[in-house]
Amino acid sequence: MDLEKRVQRLEDRISIREFYDRYCDIIHQREWTSYAGCFTDDAVFILYAPSREIYGEGPADIAATVRADIEKHDFFLMTIAGCHSVVEGDRASARISFSEFANGPEGGIASCGVWHDTLVRTAEGWKIRQRHDVLHYLDKAIPRGNTLVKMGDCLPIGR
């Protein structure tokens, strides 16, 4: 592989990882307009979870669906542990391991799973065209804790 292709491959992998880091921060800050901007106009989102499936189509519908699921919690934190991506031109496939912790009026939850994403390169950067969100572990038996700082009330970066 020549140097130009190797550099492009590294740039793509870094920009995809940065995309997912920003994606998590957008959720933590509850910036739902920015969240919708993470998806292509023809995007499809499917969450496979015990006893339910969540489906969204198009950025606005996906954002509204995820927002309704997250905003019932006064605290929601997501981390990603791994991001494996394969880029082929302006398309990429990615597999990302994630963990979530949430606390709300009905108690807390802990979960983890894997996103299986198809991304496309756009003029604005990488966006998700298709997501299969597979939940592998869910614990709803966590007692309600004390939310000390409401999500979205974080300091801006650089302060």
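^ that was protein a. below is b, sequence first then the tokens
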Amino acid sequence: MKFKMIYLYVGLIIMLILFLTIEENNFFDKTNTKKVLDNSNTVVNTKSMNPDKKTPTKENVNKDVYHKIEKFKEAIVKNPSDTLMIRKYAELLALSHKSNDAIKTYDMILEIDPKRTDVLFEKSFIYFSKLNYIDALEATKDILKIEHNNSKAYYNLGAIYASIGNKKEAKKNWNFIVNNYPDAQEAKLAKESLKKLN
């Protein structure tokens, strides 16, 4: 099996999402001490639950995730037009393997601002990860309707076409990048992908 550049590209996106999520860990907690609610609705310091600083237990992680999800829901109810909060919530859902819920949440942002290509990229990534190439293709084409010169979208379009076996369309999109955006990072990826496609 040949290595496809899309896997590298997808991996980089996942790493970026993980980094952003980790950086946002303390979004609701200004004291830099993680707190969760236990079953009696009492705030518990997770450092005291795991004083030897080993890997967190399943229970601690689940409580922390559920706590964050509830905090995001509360914040969104208070301000349903806060697209930054909605996006963070969608990212948490996606990382929690709740991709269908994440897509619905991203759609909330698109209802507020239908030209959010960053959100369309996220939806396309989720669809692609689930091997739902038709919806990934549609979301990527929607990006290009808004940003006609988005080399990343053209690269992704080529990758989606390559994944479904449409080499002609993959080559067309990747050659378009190489010819029109020769200095873009995606042009380098497209050149490598074209070599592997042949």
